[in-house]
Specification:
- It is a single chain.
- This protein is of the alpha+beta class.
- It contains 16 helices and 26 strands.
- A 6-stranded antiparallel beta barrel has the order 4-5-8-9-7-6.
- Strand 11 and strand 12 form a beta hairpin.
- It starts with 8 loop residues before the first helix and ends with a strand.
Length: about 625
C-alpha cells in the first residue's frame, strides 16, 4: 500500500496498519484441491524460517524469524512458497498456505522508491491464527513503531495493539497485484479491524494521537491498474505541470479507486492534534469520528488557537453524501485533451446531502489595532497593562443544518439552510446594514434564527423561494416567499456568459412578504422619540401619515399602492403583523427586462394584483 507523501496525520493511523495486512497477505493464496493433497501427504508440524525477505514493487518486508505452527508444509515447501522472484502470483501461492498460526516476533516494512522520504514501519509480535485457504481468522500485533526519514515530512510514531478478524489474504493479493476490469463484484477484505494508541510527531512538532480506530466490513474490487499501480501514480505528483495525457490517466485512476473501495464503517475515538510552533500553535480534539459509506459523524470537537480563540462543537454530521457525481465527472474529464476549465472542474462537486451542526460555541479574541507611532504604541501598551484585558466575543449556535439536492452542472438544484439559536453580542454587527442600530434599541445580545429554502422545478422552469426568513428573540420576524419563472437548465451552465444571458429570461411570478413585530418596532419608536424629542404617540402618528399618504404617492397612487399604504398605517398604529402579496396580472409574470425598462413604479403596479393587510 502506498503511504501518503503529505503530512501523515490520520493517514498514517489507517494507512500503515493496512500496510501490514496487505504485506502479510502478499505472501500466500489457495486452491482447495492442492491443500487437501498436502494434508494427506504431510504430517502437522512446526516450521521456522530465518531472515525472510519479501519484495512487492517498491515495498520490502523483512522478518528475522517466521514460525508456522500446525502446518502440513515442510520447511522446503514453505521456503519455496515465500521465495521472491518470478513464478506464480502471490494470490495463487496464498491458496496453499495453511497453518494453525504464523508468528513473527518482528516484521519490518520499508518503502524503497519514495522520493525524498523513506517510511519504515516495524511491527512487534505479529501472529496470524487459523490460516486456512488464504484466510486468517485473526491477525494481531502487539504494537508498531513508525519512522519517516528524509525530506521535509520526516517524523516518528507508534501504534498500540492491533487486531483484524476474517482477513482474506487472497483478496488483498488480487486487489494490490492483479488487474481487473473494475466491474466485478466487491470482495470483502476483513470483517473487523482495530488499533489502539496511535501517536505520531512530525518534524514541525505537530503531534497526532488517536486512542482507538475501529473498522468493519472493508471490501474492494480489482481495477485495471491494480490498487498498487493506482496509488503509486498519485505519489509525489505535480498536478499543475502534468501533460494532458497524464492528467487524463490520473482522472480515470481516481474514478476507478473511488468505485473500488467500500467501507462498512470506520470509527476513531480520542483524536487530538497539537501544533507546537508558537506562531501557528493550536490544538484540536475530537472525541469521536464515525464514517460510513454515505455519512460522517464527529462528536465533541474542541479547538484552541493563538490569542485565546476557542471553539467547541457538540456534534457535526453529514448524511446522504455520495461521490457518484464526482466519479462521473472524473470519467468525463479523462476524455479531455486540454486542461479543464473552471466550469468543468465544478462538475466534480459531490452530492452533499445534509450537513447538521449542534451546539456550537465560538470565542473570538478582541481585535486590537496597534498605533503606528512608536510613542503612541508605548502609551497603548502601558494602558493595556493597567487594565483588565477586554472580554472575547462569544458566538453560539444551538442548531444548524444545510440540505442540498443532487447537483446539476456542479450546482445543487434545491437547498435549505436553517440556523436557530444564533447568539452574538449586538456590538458584533455594529457595521452591518439593517442590524447595526440594534444596540441603540436596547439589545445587548442577539438571539436569531435564519431560514433559506429554494428549489428548482425543471419541467415548469420555475425557481421557488419556499422560505427566506430571519427572526429574533424579542424582535420579530421577516419572511419572504416567491416564485421566479423562466429558469431553465441553461441557468446552471458552467459558462458564466451563458448562465447570465439565460437569467435575462427570468420572470417574477409571485412575491409574499410578512413582517411580524414582537418588540423591535416598539423599541425603535422609543429610541427615535428620544432623539427627536417627541412623545412616542406623536412620532407614531407622523409615521401613520407618511404611510397612508406618502407611500402611495411614491408608488404611483394606484389602488394597489394605496392598499399597501393603508396596511402600513394600520401596522404602525397597532404593531402586529403586516402582509403584502404581489401577483402579476399576466400569468407568465413580469420579466427582468420589463422591470429595468419601467419608467416609474406606477408602470409596474398597474400590472400587479396587490393584497395588503395588517394585524
Amino acid at each position: 500500500m502506498t503511504c501518503s507523501k503529505g503530512r501523515p496525520l490520520l493517514a498514517w493511523a489507517t494507512g500503515a496498519s493496512a500496510c501490514v495486512l496487505v504485506l502479510l497477505g502478499a505472501g500466500s493464496a489457495v486452491q482447495p484441491g492442492a491443500a487437501r493433497a498436502q494434508e494427506a501427504a504431510s504430517a502437522v508440524q512446526d516450521v521456522t524460517l530465518q531472515d525472510v525477505t519479501l519484495t512487492f514493487g517498491d515495498t520490502v518486508l523483512k522478518a528475522p524469524r517466521l514460525t508456522a505452527s500446525g502446518t502440513r508444509l515442510s520447511k522446503d515447501e514453505l521456503t519455496a512458497l515465500l521465495k521472491p522472484g518470478p513464478g506464480e502470483s502471490w494470490a495463487a501461492r496464498l491458496v496453499r498456505l495453511d497453518a494453525a498460526s504464523l508468528a513473527m516476533p518482528e516484521l519490518r516494512v520499508e518503502r524503497t522508491g519514495t522520493a525524498g522520504a523513506t517510511p519504515v514501519v516495524t511491527y512487534r509480535d505479529v501472529v496470524a491464527r487459523d490460516v486456512r485457504a488464504g484466510r486468517a481468522a485473526e491477525l494481531t500485533a502487539a504494537g508498531a513503531s513508525i519512522l519517516l526519514e528524509g525530506g521535509p515530512q520526516k517524523g516518528t510514531g507508534t501504534y498500540g495493539r492491533m487486531r483484524a478478524t476474517d482477513l482474506d489474504l487472497t483478496v488483498l493479493a488480487r486487489l494490490y497485484g492483479e488487474p481487473g476490469d473494475g466491474k466485478s463484484a466487491l470482495q470483502r477484505i476483513y470483517a473487523t479491524f482495530a488499533v489502539d494508541d496511535v501517536a505520531y510527531v512530525d518534524a514541525r512538532g505537530t503531534a497526532v494521537k488517536i486512542a482507538r480506530i475501529e473498522g468493519r466490513d472493508l471490501s474492494g474490487r480489482q481495477i485495471p491498474a491494480t490498487w498498487t499501480g493506482a496509488l503509486q501514480a498519485f505519489t509525489a505528483v505535480d498536478y499543475e505541470r502534468l501533460a494532458p495525457p497524464e492528467r487524463a490517466r490520473l482522472m480515470s485512476l481516481g474514478a476507478d479507486l473511488a468505485e473500488a473501495v467500500s467501507v462498512g464503517s470506520l470509527e476513531a475515538t480520542g483524536l487530538s492534534i497539537q501544533e507546537a510552533k508558537p506562531r501557528d500553535a493550536f490544538s484540536l480534539g475530537i472525541a469521536r469520528l464515525g464514517l460510513t459509506g454515505a455519512g460522517l459523524l464527529l462528536e465533541d470537537i474542541r479547538f484552541a488557537g493563538i490569542d485565546g480563540a476557542k471553539a467547541r462543537l457538540a456534534r457535526l454530521s453529514l448524511d446522504g453524501f455520495s461521490l457518484g457525481p464526482t466519479v462521473a465527472a472524473l470519467r468525463k474529464l479523462a476524455t479531455l485533451t486540454t486542461p479543464p476549465s473552471d466550469g468543468e472542474l465544478r462538475l466534480l462537486t459531490p452530492a452533499l446531502g445534509t450537513l447538521a451542526l449542534k451546539d456550537l460555541s465560538l470565542d473570538l479574541p478582541p481585535e486590537a489595532k496597534a498605533p503606528r507611532d512608536p510613542a503612541d504604541r508605548a502609551l497603548a501598551d502601558k494602558a493595556l497593562a493597567d487594565r483588565a484585558p477586554p472580554a472575547p466575543t462569544h458566538v453560539g449556535l444551538r442548531d444548524g443544518s444545510m440540505n442540498f439536492a443532487p447537483p446539476r452542472d456542479g450546482v445543487p438544484t434545491a437547498g435549505r439552510l436553517s440556523l436557530s439559536g444564533l447568539t452574538l453580542p449586538a456590538s458584533a454587527v455594529a457595521g452591518v446594514p439593517g442590524l447595526g442600530s440594534l444596540g441603540l434599541y436596547g439589545y445587548s445580545d442577539l438571539d436569531l434564527a435564519l431560514v433559506a429554502d429554494t428549489s428548482w422545478d425543471e419541467a415548469a422552469r420555475e425557481l421557488k423561494l419556499g422560505e427566506v426568513s430571519v427572526s429574533g428573540k424579542d424582535m420579530g420576524s421577516l419572511r419572504l416567499n416567491g416564485m421566479i419563472g423562466g429558469i431553465g437548465p441553461e441557468v446552471f451552465n458552467p459558462d458564466m456568459a451563458v448562465s447570465s444571458f439565460a437569467m435575462l429570461s427570468a420572470t417574477a411570478k409571485a412575491l409574499d412578504l410578512t413582517i411580524e413585530n414582537t418588540g423591535l418596532f416598539d423599541r425603535f419608536i422609543a429610541a427615535q422619540s428620544k432623539v427627536l424629542s417627541l412623545k412616542p404617540e406623536e412620532l407614531k402618528q407622523e409615521y401613520v401619515t407618511a404611510s397612508v399618504f406618502g407611500v402611495p404617492a411614491i408608488l404611483g397612487n394606484s389602488a394597489g399602492a394605496k392598499a399597501i399604504g393603508a396596511a402600513m398605517g394600520q401596522f404602525v398604529t397597532k404593531p402586529g403583523t403586516l402582509s403584502v402579496s404581489l401577483r402579476p396580472k399576466n400569468a407568465a409574470g413580469i420579466g427582468m427586462l420589463e422591470f429595468s425598462a419601467a419608467s416609474t413604479p406606477a408602470a409596474l403596479f398597474d400590472r400587479l394584483e396587490v393584497n395588503a393587510k395588517a394585524n
